[in-house]
Fold:
Amino acid sequence: MTVNLDEPRKAGLLPPVPAIGGAKTSSPRGSGLASDRFATAVVVAAIVLAMQIGSYFVPAYILPSPIAVVKSLFESLTTDYLQILITMVRLIASLLIAIAFGTLIGIITGTIASVRPYLRALVFIDTGIPALSWMLMAVFWFKDPELRMFFILFVIIVPIYALNIHDGIRAMPKEWLEMCESFRPKRVQVLRYLIVPHIIPYVLMTTKSTVGYATRMLIFAELIGSSVGIGARMGLAQATFHMDSVIAWTVLLVIINMLAQGSVDLIERYLLRWRDEAAVR
Structure:
């Protein structure tokens, strides 16, 4: 018997499966992006002005001028680009693997009741362990700095995705599942037509809220357990009282985080282009 789940999807009883092509729906997203960019520019200008005024009253090793920060940022981009690349590779690789494992654990806990209590208990124990404890244990357990960085981000990020994906599946409307089960589909078909389309927004939402946190944790981990990377360079700048370098690296991290957030937004608009955006009046 061939199961066809397209009819209930067309009737709006099941979430649509993301397609490769298709027309884009209109939304007020463009005006919102313009206002966000304007607000960001205003805030940045205010911060720069405050730094410039403050640099007149305190020494440069406490608050350097914006010009000194820009010079240091340019120097870091031209001489320490390898350190930036190392940090970016660590971050992207760890995030991708953590997303895959966290999503898998969330799907298992959300769909298989027999193993749900055990995996959730393991996830809750993991979330109760401070990040600093994981960093210190990683220094003792792993000799290779790359394994240290990966382990730290993995154990910190995976539980976040597992919990959010689990909650997303449990929040699925009961009518969708009943309608899907009325066609007696295979488990793979339920996963393909119902679970995966439903959890995509949760994965993207978690990524947007996690990428900045993961970046901060990675920089902290590099400061403690690595001699290369942006975190290690920031530690060296702090030890030599180069506050302009510390602020320059901080500015670079803010830019990286904004680019990452923008990339996730682009992916979200592509994968969820079938969904109309609600506008509250």
Summary: The chain has eleven helices and no strands. Residues 80 and 148 are 22 Å apart (CA to CA).
